[in-house]
Amino acid sequence: MAPSNDLANSILSGNRSALARGITLVESRRREDFHPAERLLSGLLPHCGNSLRIGITGAPGVGKSTLIEVLGMQLCEAGKQLAVLAVDPSSSVTGGSILGDKTRMDELSRHANAFIRPSPGGDTLGGVAGRTQEAVLLCEAAGHDVVLIETIGTGQSEVAVHNMVDFFLVMLSPAAGDELQGIKRGVMELADAVLVHKADGDLLAAANRTAQQCMLAMRILHSGDESPPNVLTGSSVKKTGIEELWQCIEREVTERRNSGALADRRSSQSVAWLDRTLQGALLADFLATPNAAKELAAARERVASGAQVATAAARAVLRQYREG
Amino acid sequence: MAPSNDLANSILSGNRSALARGITLVESRRREDFHPAERLLSGLLPHCGNSLRIGITGAPGVGKSTLIEVLGMQLCEAGKQLAVLAVDPSSSVTGGSILGDKTRMDELSRHANAFIRPSPGGDTLGGVAGRTQEAVLLCEAAGHDVVLIETIGTGQSEVAVHNMVDFFLVMLSPAAGDELQGIKRGVMELADAVLVHKADGDLLAAANRTAQQCMLAMRILHSGDESPPNVLTGSSVKKTGIEELWQCIEREVTERRNSGALADRRSSQSVAWLDRTLQGALLADFLATPNAAKELAAARERVASGAQVATAAARAVLRQYREG
Q1: CA B86 to CA B60: how far, in whole Å?
Q2: Is A226 helix (H, G, I), strand (E, B) or coil?
Q3: What is the arithmetic mean of pLDDT over A119-136?
C-alpha cells in the first residue's frame, strides 16, 4: 500500500517523474502491477476530471506534431499545464515514434509546463485506448489543465480517442485529395472542428479552397444541428489561426459545460469504456484457454472461405470452452 | 435430422412458407432450436451467396417503404426474385412494424416474385443483426436474386446492416436539414450511394439543391477515392430516377465483383460477424451467471457518476465471475 500512496502523493504534488512512473504502472501488462495500478487510480480519482481533453487526428504528414508544438507553447506561455499523449497502435512495429519523439516538439518538450508522453506502443486496440484513458486521469491528478491526445487517422484508434475526449479535432492538408483517403470512413463526421493546416505561402489559396469545400460538407452533414462544426485554417509555421483555433475549442467546451452536455458526454464515455473493458477481458479469458486462439484462427479461415456460417463457427469454437 | 432436411429441400425448391419457417427457426432464441437451425444453415450454405445484398437506410419519413415498393415491383416485373428484410430493433417496443407491414408495400407483397419479412423485433443489437444475416442466407438458398435490407438510420442497426451488404444506400429528403439530424454520425460516410427522394412537384427544386450539395460533400469526403459515391435524385410517386438508381447499383457491384473487391468484402464481413458473435456469446454467458447483470448495472452507475474508474469497475464485476 505504502509505495502506491507515496506515488499518489508525488503525482498530486506535480512531480513529473512520479507521473511518468504512474503512467508506466497503469500501462503495465504484468499481473502483479494490476492491483497497485488500480489502487493508484482509485486514490487519485477524486482529483481527476478537471482538464480539457482534446483529441487531434489527421493523416501522417498533415503536421500534427508541429501544431501541437506551436499550440502547446502558447498554452504553456499563458500559464497552462499541458500534457500530450499519443495513441499509435502501429508504433511498436515500426519503432518510429520513439525516435521521432526525440526530434519533434523540441521546444515544447523542454518547457516546464509541458509533459509529453510517447505512445505506449502496439497492442490490441482496446488495451492501448484503455491505458491512454487512465493516463489522462493521472495527468489530471497531476494538475494538467489541458490534455492533448494525438492519433493518426488511419486505423481504429481515432474512434477510440473520440470516445475519450471533450473535443475532437480533425486536421486536413490544403490539398485534401490525397490524405482524406487515409482517414477512416466515418471519422470526418465525428469532428467537433476541422483545421485545414499549412495555410501559408504557396498553399494558402489551396487551403482556403479546401476549407470552403469542407465547410459546405460539414454544413450538409450537420444540417440538422444548431451549428455545424467549425472549419478553420491555420499555419503553424506562420503561427496564424492557432489563437482562433484555441478560442473555438474553449468556446465550444464552455458552452457544453454550461449546458450539462459535457458531463453527460463524459458519463456515457465512461460507461462505454466499462463495457468495452469487460468485453475485452472476457475475450482475453477465452483466448487464454488451451487451443482457443488456434481454434478461433481456424474458424476465421473457414468463415472467410465460405465453408462455414459465422454463427456456427462461433458456436463450434465456444463449445470446447464451455465444456472445458 | 429428417425434419431439418425436409425443410432444407422445401426452401431450395422455392417454397415460400418453408422459407418463412426457416427464418423463424434461425431467429428463434429457444435453446432446442439452436442445433436444428445450425444444421439447416450448414446444409444450405453451398447454395448461398448468389444474391445482390443491398442495405437501405434513411430517417423515418424519407419514404423507404415507398421506394422499395416501386423498385421492388420493377425488379419483380423484370423476372427477378426479390426478398425484403427489415432490421428495426425498436419494433418490439412499439409493436409498430407488424401493423405497418400490413398496410405498406401493398402491391409488392402480393407479387409472386416477392418475399417480404417484417422485423424480428427488438433484441440486443448483435442478436438482431446476426439473425438478419442468417435470414439473408436462407433467402439466397431459396433462389432470391436480390435481398433488400431496410433499416432506420437512427440507431446502431445501420452500421450492422452496412456490415452485411454489398451495397449501402442512404436516402435523404429534399429538405435535408431536418432528417440528417436523425442519421447517426458517420453513416453518411458509409454510403455507397445517396438517393435524394421525393424529387417531384413542389419539392423538385429543393431535392436538386440537396443533391448538389450532397454531391459536393461526398466529393470532399471521398476526394482520395477513384470515384466518389453517386448522389441521385428520384421520386417513387412519379417513378423517376428509380431505373437510374438500379443501374448505378448494378454497375458498381459488377465492377467490384470483377475486381475481386466484392469477394474480399464478403470474406471480411463474415470474419467480423464471427468475432461479434463470439464476443456477444461470451458476454451472454457472463450475464447469465447469478447476479452478473445486477452487478454490471451497479458498476455502470458508479462509473457514470465518477465514483469509480471504468477499468477498476470492470475488474470488480469480473472477479466474482472468475472465482465462481
Answers
A1: 13
A2: coil
A3: 65
Average pLDDT over residues A145-157: 82
What is the C-alpha separation between A28 and A271, in angstroms, rounded? Answer: 23
Q: How far is B221 from chain A (nearest CA, A)?
A: 7
Collapsing DSSP to helix, strand or coil, A119 comes out as: coil
Give pLDDT, residue A129.
66
Q: Which of A210, A215, A218, A200 has its CA nearest to residue A175?
A: A210
- State residue A93's pLDDT score: 32
A21 touches chain B (CB under 8 A): no
Non-local CB neighbours of A10 within 8 Å, separated by 6+ positions = A18
Paired with A56 in beta bridges are A150, A169
C-beta atoms of B177 and A224 within 8 A: yes
Residue B69 has pLDDT above 50, yes or no: yes
How does residue A307 score in pLDDT terms, banded at 50, 70 and 90?
A: very high
Tell which residue, A62, A91, A230, A66, has the closest CA to residue A155.
Answer: A91
Inter-chain residue contact A277 with B185, CB threshold 8 Å? no
d(C-alpha B57, C-alpha B227), whole Å: 22
Give yes or no for B50 touching A (CB within 8 A): no
Euclidean distance between CA atoms A225 and A220, whole angstroms: 10
Please tell me if residue B260 touches chain A, with a CB cutoff of 8 Å: no
Integer angstrom CA distances of residue B279 from A187, A264, A268: 24, 27, 21
Q: Which of A132-141, B1-10, B275-284 has the lowest mean pLDDT?
A: B1-10
> Which pLDDT tens digit goes with each residue over A199-216?
999 999 999 988 988 888
pTM attached to this predicted model: 0.83
pLDDT digits (tens, 9 = 90+) for B103-139: 568 889 899 999 998 765 544 444 556 688 899 999 9
* Chain B residues closer than 8 Å to A286 by CB: 278, 282
Q: Which residue type, as a one-letter code, is found at position B55?
A: G
Q: Do the Cβ atoms of B62 and B157 come closer than 8 Å?
A: no
CATH of domain B47-258: 3.40.50.300
Whether this model's ipTM surpasses 0.85 comes out as no
Those of residues 57-86 in A touching chain B at CB distance below 8 A are none
Do B115 and B138 touch, CB atoms closer than 8 A? no
From chain A, pick out residues whose CB is under 8 angstroms from the CB of B305: 267
**Which positions in chain A touch B216 (Cβ < 8 Å)?**
213, 216-217, 220
Q: To which residue does cell 440538422 refer? A: A224
Digit-coded pLDDT (tens) for B7-25: 999 999 999 999 999 999 9
Asked if A189 has any chain B CB less than 8 Å from its own CB, the reply is yes
Does residue A236 contact residue A250 with C-beta atoms inside 8 Å?
A: no
User: How far from A165 is each of A26, A86, A317, A320, B100, CA to CA, in Å?
Assistant: 19, 13, 37, 40, 41
Cβ-nearest to A310 among B182, B273, B285: B273
The H or E element that residue A233 is part of is: strand A230-233
Instruction: Using a CB–CB cutoff of 8 Å, tell me whether A196 touches chain B.
Output: no
In A110-223 the beta strands, taken as DSSP E runs, fall at 114-117, 146-152, 167-172, 193-196
Cβ of A267 and B34 within 8 Å? Answer: no
Q: Phi first, then psi: what are they for B318, rounded to 5°? A: -75, -30
Which of A210, A90, A151 is CA-nearest to residue B224?
A: A210
CB of B191 closer than 8 Å to CB of B301: no
